[in-house]
Amino acid sequence: MTDPTIVPMIEYEQADAAVRAVYDDIMHTRGTDWINNFWKVLANDPKLLKRTWESLKEVMAPGALDPLVKEMIYIAVSATNNCDYCSWSHTASARAKGMTDPQLMELLAVVGMANETNRLANG
Questions:
Q1: pLDDT digit string, tens, across residues 39-92
Q2: Are 72 and 99 in contact (CB under 8 A)?
Q3: Cβ distance 87 to 78 under 8 Å?
Q4: Of 39, 78, 107, 108, which is the most exposed, with the fewest CB atoms less than 10 Å away?
Q5: C-alpha gyration radius of the chain
Q6: End-to-end alpha-carbon separation of the chain, Å?
Q7: pTM score
Q8: Which residues are CB-contacts of 33 (< 8 A; sequence separation ≥ 6)?
Q9: Sign of CA dihedral 53, 55, 56, 61
Q10: Under a CB-based contact definition with an 8 Å cutoff, are residues 37 and 9 in contact?
């Protein structure tokens, strides 16, 4: 049995104009034709949806760190926080930006070692 969601997911067809505008920007920016469940849940609060999307776009944009490095950092934090959804999402995004399987394996080895030694230092 699947657990019901705490709040409904707002599908594109059900969304008001403000939510559709954010959905359209997400799809355009990411080069996809669908909206994942994270955004559909946030759409219950259109201001939160827009603020979160705008912040994410700003932080993940090219800057002193290139977008692939930023995605890899996101993967590391997501793995450490045990967020499967974020790990999958940002791994897909990093792969789309050119991350190879050997890079992912090395990244995860670094994450694992950092977690191990951090526990030793703080335990």
A1: 999 999 999 999 999 999 999 999 999 999 999 999 999 999 999 989 999 999
A2: yes
A3: yes
A4: 108
A5: 17
A6: 39
A7: 0.83
A8: 27
A9: positive
A10: yes
What residue type is 110 in one-letter code? Answer: V
Residue 48's alpha-carbon distances to 42, 45, 101, in angstroms, are 7, 5, 34
Q: What are phi and psi of 55, to 5 degrees?
A: -65, -45
CA dist 108 and 76 (Å) reads 7
CA–CA distance from 100 to each of 59, 83, 88 (Å)? Answer: 23, 21, 15
DSSP-assigned letters across all residues of 19-73: HHHHHHHHHHHHT-S---HHHHHHTTSHHHHHHHHHHHHHHHSSSSS-HHHHHHH
Token pair of 24 as six digits = 């359209």
**Which tokens is 8 given?**
């409904």
| Chain centroid offset of residue 9 CA | 17
Pull the structure tokens for residue 34: 């669908």
Tell me which residue of 88, 87, 92, 93 sits closest to 111, measured CA to CA: 87
